[in-house]
Write a structure and sequence with these properties.
Blueprint (H helix, E strand, L loop, with lengths): L6 H4 L2 H24 L13 H29 L4 H26 L10 H23 L8 H29 L6 H11 L1 H30 L2
C-alpha cells in the first residue's frame, strides 16, 4: 500500500526534492570527477574554470532531477499508484529533468577535446547517485512506520537501485543488440551534425533521463515493498 496524502510527507516537498537531487548528483559528480582527473591527459585541460562549471552543472542537474523525478513520483504515490505507475511517473519526470542537463553536459562538456570519462566511471557514478536519491526520497513516498533502522533502509535502497538499474541496463543493451541499434561514435557524430547539436543534446538528455527516472521510480517502489 502506498503512502496516503498526509502533511508529514508532502509539506515542503519541493525543498526536500531539490535537496535530495543536489546531494545525489553532487556525490555522483564528485566520484566521477575524482576518477576522471586520474585519466591520462585529463590534467592537460584548462582547469581554471572547470571546477566552477562542474559544480554549476551538478547543481542544475540535481535540482532538475529532484523536482521533476521527485515531484512526479510523489504525485503518483499520493494517487495510489503501484510499481508500474511509479516507474512511468519517474520516466516522465526523468525526461523533463534531462532536457536542460543534456544541453549542458553534451553540448557543453561533450564538445570539449578531452579524454573519454570511461563507461565504468559513468555507470558507477550514476549508480551512487541513484542509490543516494532512492535512499533519501523513498521515505517521502513510503513513510517509515515500522521502525526500520537507517542502515537497513540504506541496504534496501542499494539493493533496489542495483536491481532496477541493472535490469533496465541489461534489457536496453539486449534490445539494442537484438535490433542492431548500438550506435558507433561516427554515427552519433553524424546524427548530431545532421539535426544540430542543441536538438541532439536535448533528445539524448531527455531519453537518458527517462530511462534513469523510470529506474529510480521502480527502485523506490521496490523499497516500499521491502519495507512492508
Amino acid at each position: 500500500m502506498t503512502a496516503p496524502e498526509t502533511p508529514s510527507n508532502t509539506r515542503h516537498w519541493g525543498l526536500r526534492a531539490a535537496g535530495t537531487g543536489l546531494l545525489a548528483c553532487g556525490l555522483g559528480t564528485l566520484l566521477g570527477t575524482s576518477r576522471y582527473v586520474a585519466l591520462p591527459g585529463a590534467l592537460g585541460l584548462d582547469w581554471s574554470q572547470m571546477p566552477l562549471a562542474i559544480a554549476i552543472f551538478a547543481a542544475f542537474a540535481g535540482i532538475s532531477v529532484g523536482l521533476c523525478v521527485g515531484g512526479s513520483t510523489l504525485l503518483a504515490a499520493r494517487r495510489g499508484a503501484g510499481p508500474l505507475g511509479l516507474m512511468l511517473a519517474g520516466a516522465v519526470g526523468g525526461f523533463l529533468s534531462g532536457l536542460g542537463p543534456g544541453v549542458l553536459g553534451i553540448a557543453g562538456f561533450g564538445s570539449l577535446h578531452a579524454p573519454y570519462a570511461g563507461t565504468a566511471n559513468i555507470l558507477s557514478s550514476s549508480l551512487v547517485g541513484a542509490i543516494t536519491f532512492v535512499a533519501l526520497w523513498s521515505p517521502q513516498l513510503f513513510p517509515n512506520r515500522g521502525g526500520i533502522s537507517p542502515l537497513r533502509h540504506l541496504g534496501h535502497a542499494s539493493i533496489a537501485s542495483i536491481v532496477s538499474l541493472g535490469a533496465f541496463g541489461m534489457m536496453g543493451w539486449t534490445l539494442a543488440q537484438g535490433f542492431d541499434l548500438v550506435p558507433r561514435f561516427d554515427q552519433i557524430e553524424a546524427t548530431a551534425r545532421a539535426i544540430g547539436l542543441l536538438p541532439f543534446s536535448m533528445i539524448t538528455g531527455g531519453l537518458l533521463g527517462a530511462i534513469g527516472g523510470a529506474a529510480i521510480g521502480a527502485a523506490c517502489a521496490l523499497v516500499g515493498r521491502l519495507r512492508r
